[in-house]
Amino acid sequence: MLNLKQIRYCLDQMEQMFPDAECELVHDNPFELVIAVLLSAQCTDVLVNKVTKSLFEKYKTPEDYLAVSVEELQQDIRSIGLYKNKAKNIQKLCRSLIDEYDGIVPETREELTSLAGVGRKTANVVMSVAFGEPAIAVDTHIERVSKRLGICRWKDSVLEVEKTLMRKVPKEEWSATHHRMIFFGRYHCKARNPNCSECPLLDICREGQKRMKKEK
User: Fold this and answer.
1) Percent of the chain at pLDDT above 70?
2) Each residue of 158-195: pLDDT tens digit?
3) SS3 sequence, the chain?
4) Cβ contacts of 185 within 8 Å, gap of 6 or more
5) What is the pLDDT of residue 215?
6) Residues annotated as part of the active site
7) DSSP secondary structure letter of residue 202
8) pLDDT tens for residues 71-120?
9) Dist. CA 23–CA 9, nearest whole Å
10) Is the pTM of this model over 0.90?
């Protein structure tokens, strides 16, 4: 397991590699962000952005999503995985926003996770990106990078990974670290073909050293 000094080194290197890392889901307001993150479950941001380009032109408000049948909404997001279930959740979410929050996206994790299709990860993204609240949303990239480097244990759950990162990363850096770790995992420490040979963290990465030995 990495100590705090080594974790600091990892964070600094990721900042150098991806200084401008930010949310890649295209949106203009918190409501669009909630919809985009909901759609992104088990799906790439690139595909979500293709779908939301026309989706956000057609639907501007929660009322708009409820003005059509669920079948029509399903057709609008058909190219996205789990589209049937996601369409149902979008309409349930919109109904809750209208009935409970005057059509406005709430800002707390408890309120956000009460919405259909919104789990802790989605809530953390919205809190961080839309409202500037310090948060670390653990997706597959962050979980993979944290475990490969030895910041967390292999057996840790997603929630345990989040709590470990919150303990070991300064709070004022949570949101920036979240984006940088995603970029590091998405573009460098990839799931199938991590770029270990050119990684500045190879000397302290337990998984990278194992992989390099296997290649020799």
Assistant:
1) 100
2) 999 999 999 999 999 999 999 999 999 999 999 999 99
3) CCCHHHHHHHHHHHHHHCCCCCCCCCCCCHHHHHHHHHHCCCCCHHHHHHHHHHHHHHCCCHHHHHCCCHHHHHHHCCCCCCHHHHHHHHHHHHHHHHHHHCCCCCCCHHHHCCCCCCCHHHHHHHHHHHHCCCCCCCCHHHHHHHHHHCCCCCCCCHHHHHHHHHHHCCHHHHHHHHHHHHHHHHHCCCCCCCCHHHCCCHHHCHHHHHHHHHHC
4) 140, 141, 142, 144, 145, 191
5) 77
6) 121, 139
7) G
8) 999 999 999 999 999 999 999 999 999 999 999 999 999 999 999 999 99
9) 23
10) yes
Residue with tokens 């949570």: 174
Task: Locate 80 and state its tokens.
Answer: 């996205």
